[in-house]
Amino acid sequence: MSSTLAAASLVQSVDWTAVAPPTIAAVVGLAVLVADLFVPQGKKPLLGWISLAGLTAALASLLLLLDGDRETFCLTSDAGVCSYTADRFTVVIQLLVLAGALLTALLSVTPLKNKELPAGEYWFLLLSSAAGAALLPASRDLATLVVALEVASLPAFALVGLRRGDRRSSEAALKFFLSSVTATAVTLLGVSFVYAATGTLHLTEVAAKLTAVDGDLQTLARTGVALTLVGFAFKTAAVPFHFWVPDTYIGAPLPVAAYLSVVGKAVGFTGLILVTVVAFPSYADVWAPALAVLAALTMTAGNVAALRQQAGRAFSAVRLLAWSSVGQAGYLLVPIAAAGYVDDPADAIGATVAYALMYAAVNLGAFAVAALVARTAPENRLSDYRGLYARHPLAALALGFFLLCLAGLPPGIIGLFAKVTVFQAAVDAGLGWLAVVMALNVVIALYYYLRWTAVLFRAPEDEAPVRAVPHAPARAVPFPLTAAIALTAVAGIVLSGAPQMVLRFSETVLF
């Protein structure tokens, strides 16, 4: 009888509403993979629309999580310690990653319709990665956190190298794979050390037990914390772990590069927030100064490298966006570092979330316009954008607006407000030197963002690449691509008109 009761106590009821967003994405991904075996070649585009419907359903399921926090997969001995928590922080990040995946899907419909990529494999990998990205913000133990991180990352490797026969794509996938595997190995080693020192994997219990680690285990605990942070620094593309970004973005299919720039970055920063603020708050004196230095180095290296892309007309616009994303990662690191210097880290983390929401909308919009230009100029050089206003006026206006948002200039008010919140988080934490470094980097970034914006409205030059452009109007802009540009532009305009929507939304982020 006692053994029966013990077995029964281990049986848990799953809160399917709480786990709905990642579950829907995963189930639809499996359904698409199976359907690919039976759908005729001529009807493969149907898989794309099924995937879009699945991501839309996953986004809609977030509405069920707005009535309060939900927890599941809890310890039978302590119902308050759970592995999965759907709180406000989880919902905001899931909104970001699922919306980013949905916009990526819109950018992907046309290349897949043109058979540039294998449809079934592509949609399965994208949905699988999105499912892992949606699972990660809800993870509240280190094991689930690492599993979610790998579920989000492993399909991304294959997505980068999915263009068969393309040497540049294969090299990008290999570089991305090797750097990420190294990061995962370091993270797992750090997690194992933390577990050895504390005897638990749940984040809240780790936080409690790290405050009373035995003297003999202090070195082990500190090493574990440091290695875990290094592993997540790889994922966020922080300097000096950023070397894979430019080549990976250039070699990957353009929609995949857009996905990595937003969803991939969100995954890394979400994990970093959870391990620092939730699991390792007692070691803030270790990780806060380290992250502050990383933030300064990352924003400087990214912006200086992006500035160099303006030195010649043959430089790739995608490479500039890649280096720009490294610089933006530095800004995102600032509030996380600031969280280690204040008594209540919620406001600082809210600044990171607000900046991430702004960055996701406008950066995906910039990649959407880049996909439009790539239809007639596959190399996507900066010179290919000259005279874009004459060819596609609305797309040029949208790209100009996105670049101004990234620069933090009107009419991109949401970009300005997001930068102000990050700047304020640094000042409130007493990191005046970091605020100065950030201000200098904002000035550097103004140059290359404004110069790219100016190119859009210049008269086209009489050169061979431009003479090929008059053929472009004969090719109508596909509806999914138009929808992606329109959705991101509307999001940026609405948020610039009412930036308090994001700021108030992010201010309520609590753990």
TrEMBL record:
Reactions catalysed: a quinone + NADH + 5 H(+)(in) = a quinol + NAD(+) + 4 H(+)(out)
UniProt EC number: 7.1.1.-
Cell membrane recorded as keyword: yes
Listed transmembrane segments: 20-39, 46-66, 86-107, 119-136, 142-162, 174-196, 225-245, 257-280, 286-308, 320-342, 348-373, 394-418, 430-450, 477-498
Localisation: Cell membrane; Endomembrane system; Membrane
Topological type in the membrane: Multi-pass membrane protein
Domain NADH:quinone oxidoreductase/Mrp antiporter transmembrane stretches: 139-444
Pfam family, one: Proton_antipo_M
Keywords linked to the UniProt accession: Cell membrane, Membrane, NAD, Quinone, Translocase, Transmembrane, Transmembrane helix, Transport
Enzyme class name: translocase
Biological role stated in the UniProt entry: NDH-1 shuttles electrons from NADH, via FMN and iron-sulfur (Fe-S) centers, to quinones in the respiratory chain. The immediate electron acceptor for the enzyme in this species is believed to be a menaquinone. Couples the redox reaction to proton translocation (for every two electrons transferred, four hydrogen ions are translocated across the cytoplasmic membrane), and thus conserves the redox energy in a proton gradient.
PANTHER family: NADH DEHYDROGENASE (PTHR22773)
Family per record: Belongs to the complex I subunit 2 family.
HAMAP family: NDH1_NuoN_1
Subunit relationships: NDH-1 is composed of 14 different subunits. Subunits NuoA, H, J, K, L, M, N constitute the membrane sector of the complex.
Protein name: NADH-quinone oxidoreductase subunit N
Source organism of this protein record: Streptomyces polyasparticus
Lineage, top ranks: Bacteria, Bacillati, Actinomycetota, Actinomycetes, Kitasatosporales
Gene coding for it: nuoN
